[in-house]
Amino acid sequence: MSEPMPLVAGLPMYDWPEVAAATDELWMAISQNLSCQGVNAPASLWRPENLEELWGYSGLLVGQMCGLPFVKNYQSQVSVLGSFDFSLGGPPGSCHSVLVCHRDNSAKSLADFSGQRAAINEVGSQSGHAALIQAAQGCSVRFSQISESGSHRDSIKMVATGQVAAAAIDAVSWCLALDHEPAAQDLQVLQRTAPTPGVPLITAPQQAHLRPQINQAITEAVRGLDLEVKTALYLTGFLARPASDYEVFWSGEPE
d(Cα 232, Cα 138) in Å, to the nearest integer? Predict the structure, then answer.
């Protein structure tokens, strides 16, 4: 009989270098709580370059992924735990995107950007791709070109340097950019999208039976974090939620 895969954890969605230490502290608190419940949780986070390695790993104890890829490709491969709650002003456990342009742009709304270039972080992203396309369709905007930047941070840089005119940025990433990315100071927010369920925390099916213990460990860890860590991550809580909450993303899927 083969030995079980070692357990791993990853929190990659907002793991900017400037807040990596805070993310590590968050995980250490979760890991310690799990250990107190008899779960052999990893002491440190796994940070593979290819996130599909993390999401598809059978020993995944706690992971984090974009909601749209979950709905499209991973519903049978992972189990949803819930989502973090951030200080964004929306419903608990929700997130939204900000539509941004250069601060010198006189545009009043996204409707003024027909025929111009836009950036997305990556194809299939809920916050950077689907949110932009859905907003554009809502005001009959057709971009002349949509470029894939590779990350929300790089989308911000592309707008700041004039390579594109607009982009949709995940709201938590936008907060981090205002703290750590100088290019963000050259941008302005055109509008905010409607809130949707926040980035899901996930576990592999092999660990789904541990869902109550994992969610308790996350809840208590966030509650007990130092204020400095919470502030750095814009983190206020955790909301356990079912996978069905993410079905709303089908309506915003880009064609």
Answer: 34
In this structure, the answer to whether residues 102 and 187 fall within a common structural domain is: yes
- 228 backbone φψ class: left, alpha, beta (φ>0; ψ -120 to 50): alpha
User: How many whole angstroms separate alpha carbon 173 and alpha carbon 183?
Assistant: 13
Residue 112 to residues 36, 105, 212, 250: CA-CA distances in angstroms?
55, 10, 48, 27
Distances, alpha carbon 108 to alpha carbons 102, 138, 151, in Å: 12, 15, 25
Instruction: For residue range 195-248, list pLDDT tens digits in order.
Output: 999 999 999 999 999 999 999 999 999 999 999 999 999 999 999 999 999 998
Domain count, the chain: 2
Give residue 150's domain range: 97-193
AA identity, residue 135: A
> Among residues 235, 176, 236, which one has the least CA distance to residue 19?
176
In this predicted structure, the answer to whether residue 1 has a pLDDT above a threshold of 50 is no
